[in-house]
Each structure stands twice: as C-alpha cells, then as structure tokens.
Write a structure and sequence with these properties.
This protein is an alpha+beta fold.
C-alpha cells in the first residue's frame, strides 16, 4: 500500500462544484433564444423533487427503525467486503471486470441486438471491415450515388469513413473475431480494470472509496449502455483511464526512474491511442497531464526522462493516425471530417456544416443541455445524478494527488465541447463520457467526506440510507425502463437484413433499397459534386421539387461541380419562404407555397406514402452474393447492365405506417426498363 497522498488547495474543487450546480440545475438552455432547449426540464424538476423526497423519506424511516433495532445498522457491515477488496486485489478486480464485461455483452446483444444503430456506428463498422480486409480505403464504385452514405468520404477513386482510424481499428478486432459487437464491451471492461487500479492508488488509505468508485464506474447505466453500443466513446475512455493509471504509477512516491519512465511511456501511448479514436477528448486530458509533467521536470531535473518518454508514447499512435490521413485525405493534418464537411466542422465559433451558426451563446446552451441530461442518464437515480459529486466537491478539505489533473482534464473537455457546434445526444450526452472517471470518483467520496465533517451520527445514517434507496430504485425500476426504451427504438436499423434475405430466398441478386425522396435528392446532390455542407443547406432550405428539376437538368447534361453550383445554389434565394412539406411523410422535405409539382414530383411523393426505409443497414449487410444498392430509378440501369443474369428485388415496407418493417419485392427487368424509358417532366 502506498503512503497517504499529499494534499493541495481546494479551490478547483469548489469551482467544479459551482459549474455542476449552475449547469446541472438551471435551465440555461431554455433561457437562450433561437436554439435548442430542454423541453423536459419541468418534468425532470418535478421528478427530482418527488424522487428525492421519496428516497429521503425512506432513508429517514430506515434511520428511525435502526434506532430501535441495532441489527438494522452496523457501522462495520461492509468491512469484510472492503477488507477482501484490499487483501485480494487481483481476485476482486478480476471478478469486477468479468461481471462488467458480461453486463456490457448483455447490453450489446439484448438492448442493441449486436447491431450498429446510429450512422456514426455504421460508418465506423464500414471502415472496420475495410481494415479487416487489409486495406485502408475501399474502391469507389463507378456509380457512387447508389452506395453513398452520410459519413463516408469519396475521394480520388476511394471511399473511407470520416472518423479517425482508432475507432474502426477497435471494431476491426471484433470483425476478425466474427462479432463486431464484442469490441466495445471489451474496451469497457478494460476501462473498468484501469480505473479500478487507478483508484486503488489515489485512494490507497481509503479502500472503501476505491471500491465504491469502481462499482459506480462499472455499473452506471450511462456506462453500461454506452459500452453495449458500437460508438467510439468507450474506446476513448479506455485510453483516458489507462493514461490516468499510468500517470498515477509514474508519479507515485518512491518509484524508480526506470519505472517512472516506463509508466510515462505507457501514459503517452494510452493518450495517443485515445487521440486516434477521438482527438478532442484525448487532447483534453493530454494537455493538463503534459503541463504537470513539465512542472515536475522544472522542479526536479530527474523527471526529464519520464517527460520525454511520455512524449514518445503519444507520438507513436499519433504518427500512425497522420500517416492514415496522408494516405486517405492526401494531407497528414486533414481529417476525414474536414475533407467531407469543410472548415465548418472544426472547433470554434463560426458557420456550422448545417443548422445555425455556432456562437458562444449556443456553446453555453449545449453545455447546459449536456449537464441537465447527465442528471438523469448518468446513474438513473431519483435523486439528480450529480448531487453526490457536488456535495463531495464542496466538503473536501483539499485535493489529493492526481485530483488536479483529473479535474483540469474534465474542465478542458467541457471547454472544448463548448466550442463544438454539434449536439451529441445518443444514450445520454455522449461527448461527456470521459467525465466518468471524475464523476464516479467524486460521487464515491461523498460518504467519507460527510463522515469526516459531521461524524457517524444521525445525518450520516440518513444520507447513507437515502443513497442506498436511490440506488435500489435505479437498479429495480429506472434502469430496466431505460433498457426497454432503448430496446424498442430504431426498429428498422435492428432489422436482420441477411436473415430476412435468406428467408425470402434472395441470393445472387441485385436488391434496390427504396429510401425517401429526400434521401435520394441528397445523394444526387453529392453525385453532382456539391459538398456535403452545400447539399445540407440546399436540402433544408429549398423546395424538394425545385431540387428535383435542377438535378434532372444537370443529370441530362452531365453538369457537375461549378456548373452544378451555378444551377443549384441560386435556389437558396427562397429559403426564408419554404415550409415543411405538407405532402410527404418525410418531415425533412421542404415545400415552397405556390410552387408547381409536376408528374415526377407527384410520383415521388406517392412513393414515399407507399413506404420507404433507410439504406444504412444494407451498407454493412453481407448476403449470399447479393448487391444492396440505393434505388435511384433510371440510374439503376447501371447495375442491371453490370449484372445481367441476377434476379432483381426492391426493398421497402408494405406501407408508411410507423414501425412497418421492410420486405423484399421481386421485380421484372423488362417492366423496370419500360418504366424508366417513359419520359415525364419533374
């Protein structure tokens, strides 16, 4: 066991508590006009008040009962568990890691059906399959619009994901194992191991805090659901937790120079790995870690070697990422995001790739939304989830070793995403996943800090009982409800494409996937050489039939790039007048009141009403020698000519009713050609 940690000032803890109170309880987002708000705030506030009252009331009742019967309260009740945690660290940590891994696998398979459900997941799985095949990019089809997807970059005859390579590389491990879904649960379990070992070091004199923090980290619903997904946030969290563990070992009192240097190298490698997955998140923790190592070197020149080792560790994975960029986008510092969306995708206050411009006011709005959501999604307790961490931050007399770095990294993460334009809401505020180490650790400290301030009397017993009741409600009621909510959503993305194709006897075939008219317009805009940002603006602010007419004229003449911009961008002149389409079931399509709709536009609206689906699940489907392509009507002739002997199918639901799953409909080549040969004006 290491010596009790040294202590520093407490001002950062008070500042962190103030941030959590202001943004975690006040509806700042609702006070800022013209942007996103949190319409659930009123309901959440009522739930916090009523839920806290219930938990507190039961806690008081239990305290009163415990005064009558000593068997209901023993101060040393958990001592055997804490002692086992201390005496058998390898066994207890292994049990914790294996249990968490099993829970994350259950989340992946039962809640998410082992499938990518968000476009980000699909794009990264697409890239993971490319990596698993031994390539860094896939060949671009001669008719790319039939196979395009939102987050795929098509450049110089190749196609690849917009995301940094680390996330897809992690998924590629699962692809090679025949189970892509297992990669993120594995990262989550490894993150639990790293965090547990980290807390054993920083809380060496308080093993109960280490145990509770590890349990909160491993079994927080936010962590469980995110670890069951195929998003790249948990692999990044693994990098951060591994870096914190290595930093704790590298700066431990009494460690040899060789050990400190090796641990610093591991710290750098972990941060570098995190940077290859999510550069912003890794940078948020790398900067304060680097600053602390530099400060230690200034104070003691013997710390120079660990500083250099950490820099080498960071450089190795980052160099691989820059090499990947150079081989894909053509420049080491040009990431796929920017290649696809332009400068508007970067951090800062400027025009966004789509939607309103990002301003400091919108940044505060997003920070407010993220913390308000954390209050619910972090622990799913009836008491707001941030309360325990806030109280501990207010009570702590001084910071412990590593606390300053952990708080600084967390603050940097919040600051960087304050300057980022996109609202990252999926399974909770996903951009804040790397706050888990700080939130779990400080939440676990609330009971010992309360005990240190006010002793083991009535208030301590009531607080402890209230916390236990709150956790019990989360485990028995709230978390199962959330799991059911997630399990029932995004039904089309969960559809087993390959299984349905086998049951329908679809093999050695071309399958055209009927998407909405709006989705077809979007990929046709890309095919004409318009950037993704330009296409987004046109789609959201121009009448759909006007887009159809403009694209049809360009496709007849072969116009693209500058010619396409000259034809399409002037259509934005009427952007202030367009409204949501009253004709289509696709709520994203736009209509200019009074604009004429010709036969082709009317047909497209009718097709939408007959039922459409999304192409994304088919992008990563396997099938038995089946080509899945987007249905673009006459453009489909390209594939009919390429595969003259294959059967042809159309995939769409039988109706536009909510929840209707797609079906395979056999098609006749002759009838298709006859339909496409007929001319009708847009």
């Amino acid at each position: 066991m290491s010596a009790p940690p040294s202590r520093a000032g407490r001002l950062p803890a008070r500042a962190a508590a103030a941030v959590l109170i202001i943004f975690g309880f006040l509806p700042i987002a609702n006070w800022i006009r013209g942007g996103r708000d949190w319409p659930r705030y009123g309901g959440d506030l009522e739930m916090w008040i009523s839920g806290s009252a219930i938990a507190f009331g039961v806690g008081v009742l239990y305290y009163m009962l415990s005064r009558r019967s000593e068997r209901l309260w023993r101060d040393d009740a958990l001592h055997p568990l804490v002692r086992r945690w201390t005496d058998r660290p390898r066994l207890t940590t292994t049990l914790l890691v294996l249990t968490s891994f099993a829970l994350y696998v259950l989340s992946a398979l039962w809640v998410f059906n082992g499938r990518p459900l968000l476009v980000d997941e699909v794009a990264q799985l697409f890239q993971a399959r490319i990596f698993a095949a031994g390539r860094i990019a896939g060949p671009l089809d001669p008719a790319p619009e039939l196979f395009s997807a939102l987050h795929l970059v098509e450049r110089d005859g190749r196609v690849f994901s917009q995301f940094p390579p680390g996330g897809p590389a992690v998924l590629a491990i699962g692809v090679l194992l025949g189970a892509a879904w297992i990669a993120v649960p594995l990262c989550g379990a490894l993150a639990v191991w790293c965090f547990s070992a980290f807390t054993r070091g920083v809380e060496a004199d308080r093993p109960g805090v280490s145990l509770l923090a590890s349990l909160l980290f491993a079994f927080a619903p936010y962590m469980v659901f995110m670890s069951g997904s195929q998003m790249n946030h948990v692999p990044t969290l693994l990098g951060v937790c591994a870096a914190l563990l290595a930093l704790e070992r590298a700066t431990a009192p009494g460690a040899s120079l060789q050990r400190r240097s090796l641990c610093a190298l591991a710290c750098g490698l972990a941060l570098g790995f995190g940077a290859t997955v999510r550069p912003v998140d890794a940078a948020a923790f790398a900067l304060p870690i680097a600053a602390w190592l530099v400060w230690r070197t200034i104070r003691n020149r013997h710390e120079l070697m660990p500083l250099i080792a950490s820099g080498i560790g960071v450089a190795i994975p980052v160099a691989l990422m820059l090499w990947f960029n150079a081989r894909t986008t053509g420049a080491p510092l040009l990431f796929g995001y920017e290649a696809l969306w332009g400068k508007g995708h970067e951090l800062g206050f400027h025009a966004a790739p789509w939607g309103v411009a990002h301003t400091p006011a919108r940044g505060f709005e997003l920070v407010s939304l993220y913390f308000l959501r954390l209050q619910t999604y972090l622990f799913e307790t009836p008491i707001p989830s941030l309360v325990a961490a806030i109280v501990a931050l207010l009570l702590v007399p001084a910071l412990r070793r590593i606390d300053g770095v952990l708080l600084a990294g967390s603050a940097m993460l919040v600051t960087l995403y304050f300057a980022y334009w996109h609202d990252g809401f999926y399974l909770g505020p996903r951009f804040y996943v790397c706050l888990m180490p700080a939130l779990a650790l400080w939440s676990a400290r609330v009971l010992p800090e309360w005990r240190a301030r006010w002793g083991r009397g009535a208030s301590y017993r009531i607080v402890t009982s209230t916390a236990l009741v709150s956790v019990l409600i989360a485990l028995v009621i709230m978390t199962p409800l959330r799991a059911g909510e997630y399990r029932s959503g995004l039904r089309t993305m969960r559809w087993d494409v390959d299984g349905a194709a086998r049951r329908a006897g679809v093999r050695n075939a071309i399958v055209f996937v009927r998407e909405s008219w709006g989705a077809q317009l979007m990929v046709r805009l890309w095919a004409r050489g318009l950037s993704h940002a330009e296409a987004q603006a046109l789609y959201h602010f121009v009448d759909a039939c006007a887009l159809e007419r403009g694209l049809s004229s360009l496709e007849r003449t072969g116009g693209s790039d500058s010619v396409a911009r000259a034809v399409m961008l002037p259509l934005l002149a009427d952007s202030a007048r367009v409204v949501r389409s009253p004709f289509s079931v696709d709520s994203t399509e736009r209509f200019l009141p009074g604009a004429p709709y010709g036969p082709r536009c009317v047909r497209r609206v009718q097709e939408d009403r007959a039922g459409f689906t999304v192409y994304l699940p088919f992008l990563v489907a396997d099938g038995e020698n089946v080509v899945y392509a987007r249905d673009l009507h006459a453009r489909d002739t390209v594939l009919l000519a390429r595969y003259p002997s294959r059967a042809v199918y159309l995939v769409r639901p039988a109706s536009d009713s909510e929840g209707a799953l797609p079906r395979f409909w056999p098609l006749s080549r002759d009838s298709l050609r006859a339909t496409w040969a007929s001319t009708e004006s847009p």
